[in-house]
């Protein structure tokens, strides 16, 4: 085939073979080039193609190659062969061109994802200490699952052994009375949020979202066509002043990312208000496992009328690639959520679910969490010390302690989004507070959980290099 990839045959047929995939066999490349010529109307409908003999001679290729290409074009309806009378191009409708307009506006998640490359970075938020992950014990759990039913398809609601372990865990750790039949295993809590939005909202419904808050929540709600109104936790003092809404999403145990908590009086007032208005309260409990001291009780545990849906995740306690989270649902909602689960994907892979159930049942999960809680508290202290000893020591830390990240406040003239981008290019994956609420900040969310002393020191050094000139202004 012509190495240049461009062929003008002496038959008046111009074929751009360079636009075809060189890894494909020759007959496929010729088929693609001919189809392109037909679709672009360079060869008119009704016209006759050169004979296979003539085209193979003109292109210097085997006649069989041309024959195969013609056969494929005919099979797909681009040519109409008339036995003995040659191959004629079919009369085809013209394909609409895509409207030319600028691309859609990026939302916050897309902005972050397009800025932040995959792979770990220094001071990265929401990243567990993967260097401390108990690989051998996890492999043992996987092995156990592999020979213990993990190769079979399972219950769309989630593996019953895992649902049992989660219910037990929530009872002992979070003071929650949960039946395994109320637990729905999801692909991370992100999918849980999306399922809630798709099942409980109709287009135009109003949703109340805590500010600041995780942008994935807003995306899930907007994808379901909901309108979003945002509130600060302080506004729950006058809960009656909030607009009428279908559901509310909040992080009562630890605001994301600032870390403050919702006190008991506001929790109780909120529950009463939700009962009165028949509002669903979604409790996103994303990292209470690493609270400083004992974790606050879940809002769910105060609820007497099953208006709270609790969302939990293993992304932070184990590893983000696991993609296992869960919802604890009011009993009345279980059947419809299980039904949609069956329709959407038939349930998650059994193997990791079974392995996780085994990991929890044999005590490895709680052992790992106790170790990580101690480690993260030490790493948090180290980060605070490094910051205090650096030129950034004057920057206030706004955070309630514990967790996997802390926040620093920046002077008002700083553009935290721009700073985030600059740090990213140095391998530092902190996040701008304004990503979570444009009225909040400027400030930065600094992860400390995944960094050993060396990488943390490098992270703070890079942070100082970028921030110091801005602090002098
Ligand atoms: C507050 C909060 N909620 C929910 C999620 C979603 O977590 P996942 O889907 O990994 O379980 C995240 C992820 O970072 C988060 O920060």
UniProtKB/TrEMBL annotation:
UniProt xrefs under CDD domains: AAT_like (cd00609), WHTH_GntR (cd07377)
Task: Name the domain of life.
Answer: Bacteria
Q: Where is the HTH gntR-type domain?
A: 24-92
InterPro entries cross-referenced by the UniProt entry: Aminotransferase_I/II_large, HTH_trans_reg/aminotransferase, PyrdxlP-dep_Trfase, PyrdxlP-dep_Trfase_major, Tscrpt_reg_HTH_GntR, WH-like_DNA-bd_sf, WH_DNA-bd_sf
Question: Could you tell me the keywords of this UniProt record?
Answer: DNA-binding, Pyridoxal phosphate, Transcription, Transcription regulation
**PROSITE patterns membership:** HTH_GNTR
The segment annotated Disordered runs over 97-118
Q: Which PANTHER family match?
A: HTH-TYPE TRANSCRIPTIONAL REGULATORY PROTEIN GABR
Q: Which family does it belong to?
A: In the C-terminal section; belongs to the class-I pyridoxal-phosphate-dependent aminotransferase family.
Protein name according to UniProt: Transcriptional regulator
Give the organism, scientific name. Answer: Marinobacterium zhoushanense
């Amino acid at each position: 085939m012509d190495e240049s990839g461009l062929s003008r045959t002496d038959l008046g047929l111009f074929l751009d073979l360079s636009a075809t995939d060189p890894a494909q066999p020759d007959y496929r490349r010729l088929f693609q080039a001919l189809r392109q010529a037909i679709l672009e109307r360079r060869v008119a409908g009704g016209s006759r193609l050169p004979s296979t003999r003539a085209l193979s001679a003109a292109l210097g290729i085997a006649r069989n190659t041309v024959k195969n290409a013609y056969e494929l074009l005919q099979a797909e309806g681009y040519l109409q062969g008339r036995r003995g009378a040659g191959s004629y191009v079919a009369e085809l409708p013209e394909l609409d061109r895509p409207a030319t307009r600028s691309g859609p506006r990026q939302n916050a998640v897309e902005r972050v994802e397009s800025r932040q490359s995959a792979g770990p970075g220094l001071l990265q938020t929401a990243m567990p200490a993967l260097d401390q992950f108990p690989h051998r014990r996890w492999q043992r759990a996987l092995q156990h699952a592999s020979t213990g039913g993990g190769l079979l398809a399972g219950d769309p609601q989630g593996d019953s052994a895992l649902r049992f372990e989660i219910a037990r865990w929530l009872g002992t750790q979070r003071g929650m009375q949960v039946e395994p039949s109320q637990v729905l295993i999801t692909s991370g809590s992100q999918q849980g949020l999306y399922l809630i939005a798709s099942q409980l909202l109709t287009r135009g419904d109003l949703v109340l979202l805590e500010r600041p808050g995780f942008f994935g929540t807003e995306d899930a709600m907007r994808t379901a066509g909901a309108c979003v109104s945002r509130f600060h936790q302080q506004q729950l003092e006058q809960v009656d002043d909030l607009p009428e809404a279908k559901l509310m999403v909040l992080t009562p145990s630890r605001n994301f990312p600032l870390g403050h908590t919702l006190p008991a009086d506001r929790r109780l007032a909120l529950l009463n208000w939700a009962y009165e208005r028949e509002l669903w309260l979604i409790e996103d409990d994303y990292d209470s496992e690493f609270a400083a001291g004992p974790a606050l009780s879940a809002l769910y545990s105060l609820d007497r009328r099953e208006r709270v849906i609790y969302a939990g995740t293993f992304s932070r306690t184990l590893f983000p690639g696991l993609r296992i989270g869960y919802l604890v649902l009011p009993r009345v909602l279980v059947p419809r959520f299980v039904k949609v689960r069956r329709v959407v994907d038939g349930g998650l892979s059994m193997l990791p679910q079974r392995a996780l159930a085994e990991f929890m049942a044999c005590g490895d999960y709680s052992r790992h969490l106790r170790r990580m809680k101690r480690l993260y508290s030490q790493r948090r202290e180290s980060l605070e010390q490094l910051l205090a000893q650096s030129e950034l020591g004057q920057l206030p830390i706004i955070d309630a302690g514990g967790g996997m990240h802390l926040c620093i406040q920046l002077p008002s003239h700083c553009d935290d989004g721009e700073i985030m981008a600059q740090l990213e290019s140095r391998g530092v994956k902190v996040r701008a507070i304004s990503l979570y609420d444009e009225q909040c900040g400027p400030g930065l969310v600094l992860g400390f959980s995944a960094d050993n002393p060396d990488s943390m020191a490098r992270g703070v050094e890079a942070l100082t290099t970028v921030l110091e000139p801005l602090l002098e202004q």
